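User: Can you recover a sequence for this backbone? Please restate the input before giving your answer.

Assistant: Of course. Working from this structure:
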């Protein structure tokens, strides 16, 4: 049996690591299958995939990124027929094609020409016209759809006739969480991890720290870790914002890292101050797996992760004052959240452990393969589906 897995990225940010974990689930379910992975470029994601894939193919993909839309809708259209033909050939040769994220337009367009072979895994909540375009593309494709949260499913609002399912991302975490060590006698270690972009809210966090009373601000140490996607000007702008706020001794920045485990161990809490809807919020889940309570925006799938006042904190999005007030309470009253780390880990174990996605994803794969499967799947380990 040939399973082709297609992904639009090449780094190891959240959607990239989710893709690796989905390929791992497929390999565990179908250990004798040939699994080909298609990527647009070489990058850090290749190393973990090399242990799972039969082969990794680097091929051009027609990816609907917002920043590239002017080019794609003009001269880029000349490349679309070739991209669709390439996708159609892979669909024709495969028993199943698993497409990660809805922006891989060539494969979704070609899926209509080879029906019954495609499972699409949606990990994004686009806005405005982009959402309309991607919703239309999904409906055209006829693909079975896995949504990574209820918020994502609600945003796309597919008709009831669509074959879709909500399955929370299964995320690998440490065997045991880290102990809480913050008691107010040293600076609170606050981590923000993610791509530097207009969505993630790095500037909101910087402003929130600036708004803290000086007596509290001096009791905080902040690390903002991540890089912009091919946009060094945005990274420079963030550094300038930190300097202008007089926070260079408190807020440090660092580029993207493949393995953030040491960062989670360093942190006391993890901030996810997103300005626009997150489809789920992988960083918040990873933080909980390490016993690090997340401080998140009340938006999108983040509200499905955190139980306010029990496993973490939730504040209004794009509201630096509200974020600052919550950070002040966290710093000055550490005993109020003594139980949060254990509760956060327990929620991770119940809903978001790596095993949690296995049954939901393999159920969709089995249903799509139907009688065409030449290999019976291995029984998945366990699962919790939303």
């Amino acid at each position: 049996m040939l399973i082709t897995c297609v992904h639009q990225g090449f780094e190891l940010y959240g959607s990239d690591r989710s893709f690796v974990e989905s390929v791992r689930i497929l390999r565990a379910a179908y250990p004798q299958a040939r699994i080909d992975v298609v990527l647009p470029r070489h990058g850090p994601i290749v190393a973990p995939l090399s242990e799972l894939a039969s082969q990794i193919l680097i091929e051009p993909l027609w990816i609907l990124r917002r920043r590239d839309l002017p080019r794609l809708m003009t001269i880029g259209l000349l490349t679309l027929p070739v991209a669709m033909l390439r996708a159609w050939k892979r669909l024709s040769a495969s028993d199943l094609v698993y497409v990660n994220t809805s922006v891989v337009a060539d494969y979704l367009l070609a899926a209509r020409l080879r029906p019954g072979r495609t499972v699409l895994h949606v990990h994004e909540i686009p806005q405005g016209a982009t959402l309309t375009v991607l919703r239309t593309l999904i409906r055209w494709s006829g693909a079975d759809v896995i949504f990574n949260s209820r918020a994502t499913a609600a945003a796309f609002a597919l008709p009831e006739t669509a074959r879709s399912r909500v399955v929370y991302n299964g995320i690998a975490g440490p065997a045991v969480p880290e102990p809480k060590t913050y008691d107010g006698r040293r600076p609170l270690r606050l981590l923000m991890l993610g791509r530097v972009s207009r969505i993630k809210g790095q500037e909101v966090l910087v402003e929130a720290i600036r708004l803290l009373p000086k007596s509290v601000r001096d009791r905080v140490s902040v690390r903002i870790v991540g890089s912009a996607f091919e946009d060094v000007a945005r990274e420079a702008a963030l550094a300038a914002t930190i300097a202008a706020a007089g926070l260079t001794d408190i807020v440090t920045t660092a580029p993207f890292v493949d393995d953030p485990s040491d960062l989670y161990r360093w942190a006391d809490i993890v901030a996810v101050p997103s300005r626009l809807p997150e489809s789920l919020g992988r960083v918040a889940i990873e933080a909980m797996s390490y016993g690090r309570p997340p401080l998140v925006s009340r938006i999108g799938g983040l509200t499905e992760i955190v139980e306010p006042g029990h496993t973490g904190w939730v504040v209004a999005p794009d509201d630096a004052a509200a974020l600052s007030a919550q950070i002040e309470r966290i710093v000055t009253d550490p005993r109020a959240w003594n139980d949060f780390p254990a509760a956060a880990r327990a929620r991770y174990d119940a809903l978001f452990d790596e095993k949690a996605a296995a049954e939901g994803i393999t159920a969709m794969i089995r249903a799509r393969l139907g009688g065409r499967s030449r290999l019976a799947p291995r029984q998945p380990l366990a699962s919790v589906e939303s």
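That completes the design. Confidence is low (pLDDT under 50) at residues 378-386.
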